Amino acid sequence: MGGSKLMRPIFHEHNLNLGGKRIRAVLENEVAGETASYRLWRKDGKSDREHPRDEADQYFLYVEVNDWLIPTGMTGFDLISRIGFPRAVEKLYGDMQERCRFFRQSEDESGAGDKVQQLLAAEQQEILRLGSDPTAQADFLKALLDRHVACYLKAKEDGGQTAPDFIGAAVLDELDQCQQLKAAYEERALAQAVEEKGRRTAEEQRACDAQNEAARRDLESAEWAIRNGGTVQNVPVSFWSDRWHKKTSPILLWLLQKYQIPVHLRTQGWIIRNLRSVTIERDGELIISFLRAKGRKCSEKIWDCLRALVQAVRSDDSSAR
After folding, report:
1. Residue 206: is it exposed, middle or buried by C-beta count within 10 angstroms (0-12/13-18/19+)?
2. Please, which residues bridge with residue 292 across strands?
3. pLDDT reported for residue 114
4. H helical segments located in the chain
5. Which 8-state DSSP code applies to residue 316?
6. What is the pTM of this model?
7. Residue-range domain boundaries for the chain
8. Is 230 exposed, middle or buried (0-12, 13-18, 19+ CB in 10 A)?
9. Torsion over CA of 125, 126, 127 and 132, rounded to 10 degrees?
């Protein structure tokens, strides 16, 4: 592994590298600007990208800061493109709007395909030239790291109310303090999550209670019709235990269960599939409306069940309004 060196990445398996685990790294480049200079590293070994766009696109770059390797999230190709493209656009066209206009105009001309390819080639050459400038790269990396520092300083100022930034802390060599801020932030975040969960649970319970209350009123209206005479439409009624779980049955089946009227499973199925409504006269006589499937007759058992229900409802003073 000629040219490689054991270096400490700030993160290991997406967590802060508290154990100081080291990786084999290769020095890729050194860049310097007016206010900062950096050494850029890549890991040694197999390429990070399965299908790199060119040789500079094989490995993600790390910038060395205070003996830590800070991930940039970019390959050399990405770094050159990020720096060079906006500069090339400004130099060649003025701005992005003019670039779009220029290409649209070129596409309308004869031999547009060749013309556009020539423009893209010239543009790429300018991107490579401007994006490879070491001073520009150093300034770009400093701005990138400064944003991380700003995030860390904000968390430091508010005592961990906002998420601390370990990269910013590494730049300032304050990783120990950053860990304390992270603990405060996570404690606060956990308390907020518990509070939010309690709020959502209460809201969901209120919604369930409102729907269950509406279902209870439907049952009371059906009981009133049974007691005083009227028609009960055998519509489905749902009771919710929580926002994800409910039990739905036809309203007459709910009433039969409420008043503990024994109903055979086969008769329950007939009530669910076929029974549409029941009209109860004041003298207790019943008129049943049901779905008349071909070759099917009205259930004989249903008459006994409904007469028992009428008697139970009319004998129950607690259900009277």
Report:
1. exposed
2. none
3. 80
4. 76-92, 96-108, 112-131, 134-157, 166-171, 175-228, 251-258, 265-273, 301-315
5. -
6. 0.70
7. 4-173, 214-319
8. middle
9. 90
